[in-house]
Amino acid sequence: MEFWFARDIQHLLGYSEWRNFQKVIVKAKTSCEATDNNISDHFVDVNKMVKLGSGSEREIEDIMLTRYACYLIAQNGDPRKEPIAFAQNYFAVQTRKLEVIEQRIKDWERLQARQKLTLSEKELSELIYEKTGNDKNFGLIRSKGDQALFGKSTQQMKNLLRVPKGRALTDFLPTITIKAKDFATEITVFNTKEKGLRSERQISAEHITNNRGVRDILLKRGIKPEELPAEEDIKKLERRVTSEPKKILGKILIN
């Protein structure tokens, strides 16, 4: 795996004496251990031969460092040294970039989950109309599903999450709850077809059972869907995510 020698890093970070640099390494090892990482996975003691001015060789101690170990050393170094200050700033910037990327991934995941649920509910709505001949039954069945999943009615959940009047509850749910609703809906669609369910009562019972089953799974994993906080309005999220590529392109063209 990729590694660097501590004695090389020592000079790059502005430490002229090995004994002073070793103090930084000790702090870095402490940080490594505090984050539940094995020190031996990132700091490996080695001996190597170096040439002396006379042409002879001498064995010296060194340490093989992983990228993470180098990061910890930089973070525990003396910020008054210019190379250390530069390294700390560099890692801070890179960490922020990673945080932004991770947030964008989460945003896209939530948008995709919402779009997937829309398709599943559309299929269920069409299936219910085909079986019962009534387009009002879908709203009723979905509400019963919400009651089974949250232990509260759709309107109670809207009040709890302060959903604006006229807006869908799902537009303010976190990703995991959106996926939970989608999973239960998919099962209802599948079993309605497989079991040949034809009445509102039969399909409602199926949907309630599926949502209760999904709720049981969540509860067993310590997740209470009705207690999860509201997320950003999905419409605002969609506008922001859609506009970002245009903003980035604009900056590139300006520069």
Automatic annotation (TrEMBL):
It holds the Pfam family Bro-N. InterPro entries: BRO_N_domain. Residues 2-83 form the Bro-N domain. NCBIfam families: PRK11525.1. This is DNA damage-inducible protein D. It comes from Fulvivirga lutea.
